[in-house]
Amino acid sequence: MKKKLMSRRKFLGLSSSAIAGALFGPNLNMLTAAPTDPFDYSILPKGTREYIASNCAMCVNKCGIIGEVVNGKLHKINPNPRHVKSRGMLCAKGNAGVSLPYSPDRLKTPLLRTGKRGEGKWKEISWDEAFKYVAKNLADLKQKYENRSSVAFASTEGFQEEFYYYLVNSFGSLNTVRHTTLCLSTNIQGWSSVFGSFPDADLANAEYVLMLGSDRAQALITPDSVDFQRYKPKGQKLIVLDPRFTETGAKADRWYPIKPRTDQGFVLAMINVIISENLYDHKFVETYTHGFEELKELVAEYTPEWAEKKCEIAADEIRKTAREFADHAPRSVIYPGRRSSFYSHEVYVRQTFAILAAICGCWDTKGAVVPKSSIKLASHDVMFPFFNLTRDRVDREAVNLVKDVVPSAVQCPMIGTGLPDDSCAFLSEKDGSWITFREAVLQDDPYPVRGFFCFKQNPVQSVPNVKKTMKMLEKMEFICVIEQQMSDTAWYADIVLPHSTYLESWDPAHSIGGIWPIVEMRQPVIKPLFDTKTMFEISGGIIHEMLKIPSLWDDIDPVDLVDFKKNVVEDILDKPIQDYIKHQLVNHPGAYKQLLKEGFYTVDGGRPTYGKTLKPGFRFKSKTGKIELFNERYKEFGLFPLPKYCEPEILPDPGQYRFLVGRTAWNTHTSTQNNPYLWEIQKENAVWLNTGEAKKKGIVDGEYVRIKSKIGEQRIKAYVTEKIRPDCVFYVNGWGRKSPGMSRAYKSGASEAEIIDDVLDTISGGVCMHETFVTIKKA
Amino acid sequence: MEMSFESLKETIFAQSRTLRPGMQDKHETSAWDKNRLDVESALALKNIFFYLSLIFRYPTEQIYSEIAGHLEAFTDFFTDYGGAVPELPPIDDLQPEYISLFVNNQGFVPAAPYASCYQGDGLLMSDNFYRLRQIIMESGFMLDASVHELEDHLAVLLEFCSSLLNTLVEKNNSSDKNLMACIYALLEISYRYIEPLVDDFTDKINSYASYDFYKVTGKALKSLFHDADPIYVQLLGFRSNSTNELQG
Amino acid sequence: MKNKRYAIVLDTKKCLNCKACTVACKFENFVPVGDDTYRIWVTELPLQGKFPHLHQEYQTSQCQHCENAPCEKVCPTKATFTTPEGVVLVDYKKCILCKACMTACPYDARFVSEHHESVEKCTFCMHRVSEGREPACVETCPVRVREFGDLNDPNSKVSRLLSSRPYLQLKPEKNTRPRLFYVL
Q1: Best mutation site among C28, C113, C115, C116 for testing chain B: the one with the most B CBs within 10 Å?
Q2: Which chain B residues have a beta carbon less than 8 Å from that of C33?
Q3: Is A722–C54 a contact, with Cβ atoms under 8 angstroms apart?
Q4: Hey, which of A31, A352, A472, A643 has its CA 20 to 30 A from B224?
Q5: Domain C6-51+65-183's class?
């Protein structure tokens, strides 16, 4: 009764005031009168189901999807059963992509920082204001430092990345830095040193598969993760070498718990056996390779008995594996895999893998390691202006960079003998080297870098040694992040530009090389929910504002500017993106229609072609034009031309464990942990610790421990298991986040960026994530 | 036999959460008795809804000055429902406060101002969303093309309720058969979209707010919607089984 | 024309433990996020052996669509029923949430759904099957652990698998006669 009387008093209070007083100003309505004639029902759902083909973007694989849109809302993402690359599958992440556009946490409108960096004070601005602001800052930095490379541009792979490079090239910085050196740069470099390119493995036809350090059952790669169980030929043997008993190991005919950092020794001993027992492919070696005699001489000492001491795998097992591999050749695969950011000598490890494939003739033939084919798309003949005020990359221009700039990163006594000490020998022009780049920026050597753009990369979480990354960001006078969510890096930006999700945008056609080459494209599965844009539109918007600032164009030939305005701005950026796509496909009649219908396009029904590098007259991309078992360029650079065994020079102190990092099938690096449908599978990560070791320390399964390295410490749950060697520990990446807002991942588990030391591979510039030693104690 | 308020509410909750065909058809038989509307109260509530709608929008300079300019007129309302008159921080503080609570915080949004987020899996555009869009359209409204928001944003919902009350008052003397549909819409928005949001929404504001402004206004919003039954009974002149004494 | 007899045959030795099926099922069938709400699941069976000789398998499972369904027997309102094809379904409108079926089910395959305001479970995605599509879990799996089909059709994948490989069924001692078959 009392409550009701209260209500009454309140209600009367309500009517007595506020009636006349509230004469609100004009133009305040968000709602407007709906047109009545004709009544526009277009924004209402059609009451039907539509199936729209596109491609996934939850990780790098770009699997085929068909969005099932019910009444205008994406209800489910189905796999495209006809898709040549993904073979009709869609993983947990791909399925959970449905929640991406509908996440209330996503960025919705451009935000401008108003407080201190990282303080979290923002105001909303319009896209016009945002474009102006970015262009002005670019102009200011260019004026102040008289060097366009004073602004750096970080990004990661994705279909829209090519439009990011429109912005980069229109400004004229050479400092771009991509994810590659965090992932597979050593793998690309090592295999290319032998075959001139980075190949794929024909798991669907191989009789014998040797996988070292690849967890294909969890770190999913299409088509490999499909083929290795679903399409494997009957009787195919799978041999897995991994310090952990992974889901992949569980599928193996034999699992060898190899001592970390000794994979090269195992494979060198295999080569030793295959050569000494005369099991190699004489004809192949003679026809296609260069340097066999030198190789033979090198591996003479690498006997299985020698390797047993390194790898802690019995010599007989190594011998058996070598014989089997040679026996099944050429249908034997030594699996290239993907991420190889493991050890400082990793390029030589991958070179060794490639050499094993080469001497057994397991190359470019059915069931072997096969160079990627690709479908050629028409490119736009875009000429960006030549800017006078552009200096070379920081991570290349620095003299004696490795010795002087990254001493902390180079802890390997091999430096000077097998690894270069002046600069990264084979740095990719576009990818750069994250660790060297960051170090050069921190030391202002050779020049200051004070502007930072970041497109869909999250270096605060993904680059080892987070403290240094934070210091690098502090040095910046301007930070612009283009993202879908407020990532740890976006939080420290000056301006954050919201990017549409892959389900809301048109993405250009993209040729994906492989044994089964395809072209893909994305079309919107649903209408954008918020005021977000794609990189195509963002680059166009910023470039238009840049054109209004004369000082940004005073170091180029005026003729270049005229051409640029016509060819880049008017002919591409001002036109609909569909025109761009149609031009890409101009040599493939019917491809555009096919892409709209199916999301992918193939030539010849997507059948593989084998043997194009084995035809007479083919030149491999090497100095001799042959498959180089002995790399002539490495010799010129003072590197090992042959894969000499590299001892693990950085050794653990007593009581230390080598730290390993990896992935699960339900998260992609740092981008998915907050997705409710993935979070419910795994709510925090846990550190794998061998049962015997745990017993010694009195640590029980499920209790919290402290894991400590030279650079940091984390608290994490222990997973006490037989599934890992006693000398190493492991956890999956992407947890223990800085953002309290990654509500689900925040302080849940441990971050790898907080403990991994920044060790560098000085050949490709890659990071070495498994060269960190840790101690573990009860929390 | 005249429908009681309780049975009217029941009808609303019994309706499907998904799309329905032609809302007007369903209610056109129940004509509206013009004498029943408490016009003064309707106007007051209309203004309160609209003022709350302004409060839960991003405070641009224009919105901020509207909020500041009319705060005094709502002193009684805030005192009664929010327990205090909200203190309006300077615009340079209110804007970041709004964003950090309702738009984007470090990786998340603490108090998402969307009705969908308080239903089902907490994501946007849940099952009820298209029904809402339909109700808005059939009531003769749509989002202005310049507004990049979803229809279930709290500010839109409140403005919609305000507009519905306005329609009721304006057409009160006509014999427009759609007035009953208007009442259905008002009650459905209030009870199925706003009311389920207010408790969690205000709890979140209380945990994350740096200033009192949204705490007090949030509390007022919450108490107002907890008090919705007697208010609507009196305002719409329905017979009620439990709140009749308010008529006295 | 004989009736169809639907079944799922699982080759769990291929399972990657990737959880694609469980997430696909949640979206397909409006299954709410939550540890207690699931129609299908993947279990890591106990690790066997001692380091370094280890063995482990992963087992996907769901409602067994028993021919002799304990859940159907205990349902007081006949909400749970079996279709002519042998698919055990719940009529959400008839369910009174007494949960007797949840207790009766030997496979823990049922839960209370807020979305349907009913006890629910795997339906073999009959809404998809009736359109000629496969159940969501079958379709999305990278390695094709499950095959769905008609036991009365000797040429269906399920029939051919069962005639060519030995199989087992879960909890045979309960005499439930499941329509899920695990090939060895």
Answers
A1: C115
A2: 121-122
A3: yes
A4: A31
A5: alpha beta
- Domain assignment of residue A733, yes or no: yes
Q: Give the pLDDT confidence of C66-120 residue by residue, as tens digits.
A: 999 999 999 999 999 999 999 999 999 999 999 999 999 999 999 999 888 899 9
Residues of chain C in contact with residue A76, where contact means CB-CB under 8 angstroms, are: 24, 27-28, 136
Q: Are residues A360 and A397 in the same domain?
A: no
The number of distinct structural domains making up chain A is 4
How close, in Å, is residue B1 to chain A by CA atoms? 26
> Could you tell me if residue A647 is inside a domain?
no
- DSSP letter string, A658-711: EEEEE--TT--TTSSTT-HHHHTT-SS-EEEEEHHHHHHHT--TT-EEEEE-SS
Q: Are residues A316 and A355 in the same domain?
A: yes
C61 part of contact set with chain A, CB < 8 Å:
no
Is A624 in the same domain as A538? no
Q: What is the CATH number of the domain that holds A433?
A: 3.40.50.740
Residue with tokens 């209380």: B206
Looking at the complex, report in whole angstroms how far the Cα of residue A548 sits from the nearest Cα belonging to chain B. 26
Cβ contact, residue pair C28, A94, below 8 Å: no
Specify the pLDDT at position B35.
66
Give the ipTM of the model, two decimals please.
0.96
Contact C20 A94 (CB under 8 A): yes
pLDDT in tens, A24-59: 888 888 888 876 554 455 555 556 789 999 999 999
Domain that holds residue A487: 111-178+391-499+530-585
Which of chain C's residues have a Cβ under 8 Å away from the Cβ of B121?
Answer: 32-33
Q: Which of B50, B75, B108 minimises the CB distance to A741?
A: B108
* Closest residue of chain A to C135, computed from CA coordinates: A78
Q: Which of C136, C54, C114 is nearest to A691 (CA)?
A: C54
Q: Are A218 and A247 in contact (CB under 8 A)?
A: yes
Return d(Cα B235, Cα B247) in angstroms, integer: 10
| Among B199, B152, B117, CA closest to A105 | B117
- Under 8 Å CB pairs connecting chains B and C tally to 6
Q: 3-state DSSP call for residue C16?
A: coil
Give tens-digit pLDDT for A312-343: 999 999 999 999 999 999 999 999 999 999 99
Distance from CA of C112 to the nearest CA of B (A): 14
Q: Which residue, B147, B154, B203, B215, is CA-closest to A108?
A: B147
Q: Which CATH number fits domain B5-79+88-247: 1.10.260.40, 1.10.10.10, 1.10.3470.10, 1.10.3480.10?
A: 1.10.3480.10
Residue pair A488/A737 in contact (Cβ under 8 Å)? The answer is yes
**Per the domain annotation, does A9 fall within a domain?**
no
Residues A359 and A400 in one domain: no
The residue extents of the domains of chain B are 5-79+88-247
